[in-house]
Specification:
Number of strands: 8
Number of helices: 13
CATH topology: TIM Barrel
Distance between the termini: 17 Å
CATH superfamily: Metal-dependent hydrolases
Shape: globular
CATH class: Alpha Beta
CATH architecture: Alpha-Beta Barrel
Strand order of the largest sheet: 1-2-3-4-5-6-7-8
Largest sheet: 8 strands, parallel
Order of helices and strands: EHHHEHEHEHEHEHEHHEHHH
Bound molecules: ligand MCF, zinc ion
Radius of gyration: 18 Å
């Protein structure tokens, strides 16, 4: 695969969503939990549409029940990412799944994941940072709990706060308290918007939640004034083209607006979102973008630089990663 060794920076990856289906099947068997309905006959994750995807995600996640399970998951995910040339990665983590929102329990999950991340940095040369994410369809009350967990564990590893889940449920302003709490604790902010919601959803995430990055954000393309505003303000879009194509938002890679957004001056980046669910990985994303839009090494280098600039890690970490981009290998 041509782009496999190219050094990559990934900003948008859900940890459970990156779990290989065989890994989840193995855990289910160990724990004698029957989740066969989430797999098709080839053993891949199976879902009909976006809302069903969210349900399947949660059933698959139900077999991850302890800090040790999350340590194993983190190891598997980082090995996979490193194999695809990722040298820096930010992953979405949810205290809702890791300890049910209890801060003490969350701390145990976090330290298990962080320990594995430290090992992977030494062994596989991949640096991981965490973005605590509240889940929109779980509602504002649970989001507060997630924000409190985030505020309590902000540091070198937990550097951001965000929101994901069903964009059809509630409004960004319902989550104001959580985002204010996270901001005051010193966390950087991102929000999923402009995926299943239109341009107005992006506008509201920016004005109400005051985020600096948008997860997806691609439907901004339906409002060129908004596109120009994103470009002017330097808002970074965490684009996940393979995810959008797999979930049916766009019929093909060529129809994905990433190239149009970029051509109009928007800062775009490329990530996998939930790679095994969408039959993708960072190498495939690069391959498909090269095929669809003729992107070459200098285009990918620019995208990677944009992603590193927008990363939520501290400046020392950024400088270290930057050096590795300058002298790959
Ligand atoms: O980006 C994709 C599709 N759009 C919205 N949300 C999600 C995506 N992948 C996972 N999510 C959500 C989902 O609700 O994030 C949560 C899942 O439960 C996990 S965050 C660690
Ligand atoms: Zn996502």
């Amino acid at each position: 695969m041509r782009w496999q060794a190219f050094p990559k920076v990934e900003l948008h990856l859900h940890l459970e969503g990156a779990a290989p289906s065989a890994f989840i099947r193995g855990l289910a068997a160990e724990k004698h939990v029957d989740i066969h309905k989430v797999f098709d006959q080839d053993g891949n994750y199976a879902f009909r549409d976006f809302v069903h995807f969210l349900q399947v995600y949660e059933v698959a996640t139900s077999v991850l029940q302890s800090p040790e399970d999350y340590a194993r998951l983190t190891r598997a995910v980082l090995e996979q990412s490193a194999e695809n040339g990722v040298i820096y990665c930010e992953t979405f983590l949810s205290p809702d799944f890791c300890g049910g929102g209890d801060v003490a329990a969350w701390r145990e999950y976090l330290s298990a994941m962080q320990e594995v991340a430290t090992q992977a940095e030494a062994k596989d040369g991949i640096t991981l940072r965490g973005i605590i994410t509240c889940i929109r369809h779980f509602g504002p009350e649970q989001a507060r709990t997630a924000a409190l967990c985030a505020a309590d564990t902000v540091g070198d590893f937990i550097t951001g706060f965000g929101i994901a889940g069903d964009e059809g449920k509630g409004r960004p302003r319902d989550f104001l308290w959580s985002f204010d709490c996270a901001r005051e604790a010193g966390l950087r902010l991102t929000a999923h918007a402009g995926e299943w919601g239109g341009p107005q959803s992006v506008r509201e995430a920016l004005s109400d939640l005051r985020v600096e990055r948008i997860g997806h954000g691609v439907r901004a393309i339906e409002d060129l004034a908004l596109v120009d505003e994103l470009a002017e303000r330097g808002v970074v879009l965490e684009c996940c083209p393979g995810s959008n194509v797999a979930l049916g938002l766009y019929p093909s890679w060529q129809d994905h607006p990433i190239e149009k957004l970029r051509a109009r001056g928007v800062k775009v980046t490329v990530s996998t979102d939930d790679p095994p669910f969408f039959h993708t990985d960072m190498t495939r994303e690069f391959d498909e973008l090269a095929r669809a839009f003729g992107w070459q090494a200098e285009d990918f280098a620019e995208i990677t630089r944009t992603a590193l600039d927008a990363a939520f890690c501290d400046e020392d970490t950024k400088a270290r990663i930057e050096k590795r981009l300058e002298t790959p290998g």
